[in-house]
Amino acid sequence: MMQALKITYLQRRDVNDEKWNACIASSVNGLIYAYSFYLDAMTDNWDALVLGDYEAVMPLPWRKKWGITYLYYPFLTAQLGVFSKELSVDIFEDFLNAVPKKFEFWDISFNQQNLFAVKGYPLYERSNYVLSLNKTYEDLYKAYRENVRRNVKKSLRYGCCVKTDVLIDEIIALAKLQAQKATEKGLENFKNLFALLDEKGMAKTYGVVSQKDELLASAVFLFSNNRAYYILVGNHPNGRTLGASHALIDAFIKDHAGQDLLLDFEGSDVRNLQFFYSSFGAKEEKYAAIKLNRLPWWVRLVKQDAY
């Protein structure tokens, strides 16, 4: 049984990439964020917990500050946690207990298959929104809220045009206008990751331009494990009144309708964004997260958001 296997803590240099990625690819909850190439690109550092011969794995993204080593939430890495072909509360609890004690502070997300109640670990729920594209475009379009259909028509009426293969630099430039938590380093890391995934055929860009060829809305979509991730979004203020972002998502849905593909909006706990995603017929998908503070009492006086 898997519970009888040993969980080993490995530093990044000791992880077998081939076995690691094979585990993510075959997991019931495999996500693009957990592949070694994604973690290498988007984290400052990461180590790993591995069950047996990579029957189950858990990445541990970490940083060090003021002599304290802590687990953190990397930029554009919505869900991590435990990945395996077989998951249970016992396996999940074993992994949590196997996290080395040197990680005294945790602020991390798990995934939609890690929603277990485990004593001693203050897990809480976060919201993601996903839309199955395994229907005809006509059926998907019918599930839109009226405001989405109205905005899609408005964008056409004002002469907006959808284009693909938008330059990543243009999307990043727009993303900077609204991505408050984005750092120059984080965006540069993602640019490098995009180049890698683009070569693998795992990335695509979309944009909506005005009649004057001004980029009004843009997004990067990544593809993995039968999911398409709506991951880096850049919207110009001028596009808000023209339905540009609605038109962009509608175009992606139209292009991929009928495929065994889940459009992953990456979720949000912001109500306005939740309404926006659900307006396309997307359904809520809960996933787990945790904030755990095991710092000495005198260090806890420092604000947690310092990490």
TrEMBL record:
Checking InterPro entries in the record gives: Acyl_CoA_acyltransferase, BioF2-like_GNAT_dom
Q: Where is the BioF2-like acetyltransferase domain?
A: 144-260
| Keyword entries, A-Z | Transferase
Which residues, if any, are the signal sequence?
Answer: none
Q: Which GO terms describe its molecular function?
A: transferase activity
SUPFAM superfamilies, A to Z:
Acyl-CoA N-acyltransferases (Nat) (SSF55729)
Q: In its UniProt entry, what is this protein called? A: GNAT family N-acetyltransferase
